[in-house]
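Holo model, iron/sulfur cluster. Inputs:
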Amino acid sequence: MIENPYIFKIQRYCIHDGPGIRTTIFFQGCPLSCLWCHNPESQAMPVKSDKKNIDKLADFLMEEIEKDLIFYDDSRGGVTFSGGEPLCQPQLLFRLLDLCRKKEIHTCLDTSGYGDNKIILKAAKKADLFLYDIKLLDTKLHEKYTGKSVGPVLENLKQLSKQRAAIRLRFPFIPQMTDTSENIGSIIAFLKENTIYRDIHILPFHKAGEGKYSSLNMKNQMKDIKVPSQEKLTRIKEQFESRGFNVTLGG
Ligand code: SF4
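Output:
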């Protein structure tokens, strides 16, 4: 891959980032700093670039994406823009979404939902499916564990729902942080009152990114947190299901 500060990784043959087999493009930069982040190297914002560079990078990325067209076709897959937070680089994101649509490549936008309202609504017109995280409803707790308030995440979700945007909601199950009955109850109430979405994917906390923290000289605040037991996952799954949600465990 060419050296650039805007994309930190390209991963091929992904099966957990949306439907089918996908290429995932990881954007650099995220406004949040979730304690459980598996990609802490993605959080630092890149410097702004000009249109010429962005177009050049988009062309390079399309070449990478198109290498696996045959797998996308066979598996009903495509490309996923993840991060970091892709909404932080709207010019590059929109350019890639437009190019993919032209070539009929299915696109997913994996987002925290924390972004500029105009940008996310514009992205909804260009992307085929959002993978949208809903973590914590209490704004103080959201701020404590992610560094930012939950307000924009909820407001954007409401507006996307009004537009009937295709969204796969994802709930990161983080022991001692997002897994309380109270939080799940608030999420259910919010979704029922404000959105059309009744499917949710539960993403259990795992320790895959742990080694990165020491190599980046960052403090890993999750080192004493254990991965959730099957019993706890079942309890949360049943809480959603008892209120009419279809639940999938995993991406
Ligand atoms: S939103 Fe995602 S990329 Fe950003 S800090 Fe949280 S987990 Fe990491």
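DSSP finds nine helices and eight strands in the chain. Residues 7-249 form a domain with the TIM Barrel fold (CATH 3.20.20.70).
Archived with the compound record.
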